[in-house]
Design goal:
CATH class of the largest domain: Alpha Beta
Number of strands: 33
Distance between the termini: 81 Å
CATH superfamily of the largest domain: P-loop containing nucleotide triphosphate hydrolases
Number of helices: 15
Radius of gyration: 27 Å
Structural class: alpha+beta
Helix content: 10-25%
Length: 618
């Protein structure tokens, strides 16, 4: 007999403890042996996810509780990975909304919740970290209710069950307990709430097959693997099927295929199944041209579903072949063909990405949902051995018909910042300069204030570093796409110029000592440099060409040793995010597996002068 099935997605803002909670559900359902060594945040299997402590890819696992098979989809909390969230929600019948007991609902909670409510999914609210000092359970529940109401939730969705939990300590409870004590003994109350409030999937196992592919995986043994939920019918290995990318009336294509293996999730493992029925989340292989959103259906009674819709990208960057004098020294894959092939491979699973060739040779336009979305791709590419250069991110404008003809509209972000009271003025001034409009302001009575702004996406490019400096590292900022509006006008760019190397060679300590009062450096002694490479930030607003490879003139006179001990300010550590945010329109980031360098687009000074003359006619 097939066990009853529940399919749930766990959604939350970044760092609210979602992956830690899934760890506990896996442990307490008996998925792991008592003596089994298990890593923390076991669902964050990607190296970058572990390093940054964020979830990037939606992942599946399954647990058994009192005879019920519960499929759990762990979704990303960051709006840049919204493409992952939307696909994950198409596979489930209910959502567990996890909210930090101190912070309350955050913008990215709002983003995923809006998607879930629109699909008619009924949420279970889990107030996590209730054992933390400063937890505000009543505030969080009221804020969640207000959020659902604003997002147009139905009466049934507003009547949500509440579970209090401490994911780190592994317990959940249905009512509040005493401060400083455990309110429950284990996660059983959460499991029971899921069984009571998430509907079982209703589908006829005898009906024609209907399975929509929501995500892709790849294996060197069996090729491309499709992951999705069976809506109706029964799926078996070696079955003849019809693959359709949408209804024929909407221009959808169809082709025949044969299923090789059918696999289900059991804990974190994938196990081969003889058959799978309605509600099962399965992995299938054997169909070479399988893609995201296609429907696998019965050839005799095809029932295609509409293709999955994903929000359009809001940011574009140019990915170029690295043309610097140091090109090819550190990377394995350096040609335009290799970069193009890698981007095409990424498109197979990263549905929110767009790639097209530009008019220039070796330059590709790559569009994504935000800076993090694009920089994660770049980080993965450099770890795989790719070497390339990228331009400053720019927003994707829309041309819209208005009363006076065509109007240019730009993406607007909803930004939430949590700062200490003493930093509020500086942050508000900085956001005002970037065309931000204050829409809400709340104080928590403990010396911190939460500000909500609507701001053009252009205004956020390069802001996170300035924000960290303004708040001395104590501020929290998060943003989410909020729609398109009419162009808001020019926004002032970077206030400082840069120091540009005038020669090729290696950085010399003596030269850095002479340049120390000119600004902050990105390089240290011994680093290779070339003409046109950016070696530091100028303390003024203009660019300055400097000699960073100048050595001391040696004479046969002996002098006192005080000049020998040159004191140099430590350089700024270049990270990929900082570099991409820092550069201006006429600059590039050179990315290799071992190095991140900044450079001018035109390396020669006379070329830069000519380009600036052409850019400012008259």
């Amino acid at each position: 007999m097939i066990p009853p099935i529940r399919n749930i997605a766990i959604i939350a803002h970044v760092d609210h403890g979602k992956t830690t909670l899934v760890d506990q559900l896996l442990r307490q359902s008996g998925t792991f042996r008592d003596n089994q060594q298990v890593a923390e945040r076991v669902m964050d299997s990607n190296d970058i996810e572990r390093e940054r402590g964020i979830t990037i890819l939606a992942k599946n696992c399954a647990v058994k509780w009192q005879g019920t098979h519960i499929n759990i989809v762990d979704t990303p909390g960051h709006a840049d990975f919204g493409g992952e969230v939307e696909r994950a929600l198409s596979m489930v019948d209910g959502v567990v909304l996890l909210i930090d007991a101190q912070e309350g609902p955050m913008p990215q909670t709002r983003f995923v919740t809006k998607k879930a409510l629109a699909l008619g999914l009924k949420p279970i609210v889990v107030v996590n970290k209730v054992d933390k000092p400063g937890s505000r359970c009543d505030y969080v529940i009221n804020a969640a209710f207000e959020l659902f109401d604003k997002l147009g939730a139905s009466e049934a969705q507003l009547d949500f069950p509440v579970v209090y939990a401490s994911g780190l300590n592994g317990w959940a409870a249905l009512k509040e307990g005493a401060p400083g004590e455990a309110w429950g003994s284990d996660m059983a109350p959460l499991f029971e709430t899921i069984l009571a409030h998430v509907p079982a999937h209703e589908g006829d196992p005898e009906a024609p097959l209907q399975l929509q592919i929501s995500s892709l995986d790849y294996s060197t043994y069996v090729g491309r693997i499709g992951v999705g939920r069976i809506n109706s019918g029964t799926l078996r290995p070696a079955m003849e099927v019809l693959v359709m990318d949408g209804p024929e009336s909407e221009g959808g294509r169809s082709w025949r295929g044969r299923i090789n293996q059918v696999l289900k999730f059991d804990g974190l493992e994938r196990v081969v199944a003889d058959a799978a029925g309605p509600g099962d989340i399965v992995l299938v292989n054997g169909i070479e041209d399988i893609g995201i959103g296609v429907t696998i259906t019965d050839p005799l009674a095809p029932q295609p579903l509409p293709m999955l819709k994903v929000d359009e990208p809001t940011l574009t960057m140019n990915f170029c072949v690295n043309t610097s004098p140091l090109a090819g020294r550190e990377g394995k894959f350096v040609t335009s063909r290799q970069i193009w092939d890698r981007l095409q491979k990424e498109l197979q699973s990263n549905v929110a990405l767009r790639v097209k060739e530009s008019g220039e040779d070796g330059v590709f336009e790559v569009s994504g949902r935000g800076e993090l979305h694009l920089t994660i791709l770049l980080e993965n590419m450099r770890r795989e051995g790719y070497e390339l250069a990228v331009s400053k991110p720019r927003v994707v404008f829309h041309e819209v018909d208005g009363p006076a003809g065509k109007e240019r509209h730009e993406p607007i972000e909803l930004v939430t910042v949590d700062v200490e009271d003493q930093h509020q003025g500086g942050v508000m001034q900085a956001l005002g300069e970037r065309k931000g409009e204050l829409v809400n302001m709340e104080t928590d009575g403990r010396g911190r204030v939460r500000l909500e702004y609507r701001i053009p996406a252009r205004g956020l490019i390069g802001f996170s570093n300035e924000f960290m400096n303004l708040t001395r590292g104590t501020g929290l900022i998060s943003n989410i796409f909020d729609g398109y509006e009419a162009y808001k006008g020019e926004i002032e760019g970077r206030k400082n110029g840069v120091l540009i190397s005038m020669d090729d060679g290696e950085i010399v300590t003596y030269a850095l000592g002479k340049l120390d009062d000119r600004g902050r450096m990105f390089v240290k002694p011994g680093d290779p440099v070339y003409e046109g490479m950016i070696v530091g930030i100028h303390s003024r607003d203009n660019d300055l060409v400097v000699n960073a490879v100048r050595t001391k003139q040696l004479t046969n006179f002996r002098v006192s040793g005080k000049e020998d001990a040159i004191k140099i300010t430590p350089p700024i550590e270049l990270t990929l995010e900082y570099a991409v945010e820092f550069i201006d329109d006429d600059e590039l980031v050179e990315i290799t597996p071992k190095s991140i360098r900044l450079r001018k687009r035109f390396l020669k000074e006379h070329e830069r002068k000519r380009a600036s003359r052409e850019a400012t006619p008259g």
